[in-house]
Design brief:
36% helix; 5 strands; single chain; Lipoprotein; alpha+beta; 22% strand
Length: 174
């Protein structure tokens, strides 16, 4: 798979922990609630998450772990301001990092490269005005790698971007 050196050095990967049965998509929350932040591409595509009480968001074009946490914080802030009751409906929130990748023939396709989960109770307590990207990462309950690009990004963050110092709880989950 051809991937530029810059993209590989910044790519994140999360390893899938087994394949679960698909869960029906929850249509009760309008996607517009999340899409207006400009960072969320799709809502509740839960093919890899078996928990029916999980809110699933997909964010595109991530090239650094801090970008994921920054975009998620902006989306969460908007959610807490506009529709705070949504977090009461879910036990956890999964954010998938998606990226366009090329196969060996040069064909592009969108792939899940990693995902991060947070407990809704932790997110409800989070005072985002007093938090940095590393703080929200340290609240993560789970991290999964789905593609080698994701592994490269997360490893690069934890080893080279001082992630082990700034977000040790996140890095321990890899």
């Amino acid at each position: 798979m051809k991937i530029s050196a810059l993209f590989i050095s910044t790519a994140l990967t999360i390893t899938a922990c087994g394949k679960s049965e698909p869960v029906a998509v929850d249509k009760s929350i309008p996607a517009e609630t999340f899409l207006k932040s400009g960072y969320v591409d799709s809502v509740n595509d839960r093919s890899d998450i078996s928990n029916p009480k999980a809110l699933v968001l997909h964010i595109d074009g991530l090239d650094r772990v801090f970008m994921l946490s920054n975009r998620f914080m902006l989306t969460l802030d908007q959610l807490k301001n506009d529709r705070p009751e949504i977090l009461d409906q879910y036990s956890e929130v999964w954010v998938f990092a998606d990226a366009k990748l090329q196969d060996k023939y040069g064909n592009e396709s969108k792939k899940k490269i990693y995902a991060v989960a947070w407990r809704s109770d932790d997110l409800k307590k989070a005072n985002l005005k007093n938090m940095y990207e590393r703080d929200i990462l340290n609240l993560a309950a789970d991290v999964r790698i789905y593609h080698p690009v994701g592994m490269n990004i997360t490893n690069d963050f934890c080893k080279n971007d001082k992630g082990e110092k700034d977000a040790p709880n996140f890095c321990k989950k890899l």
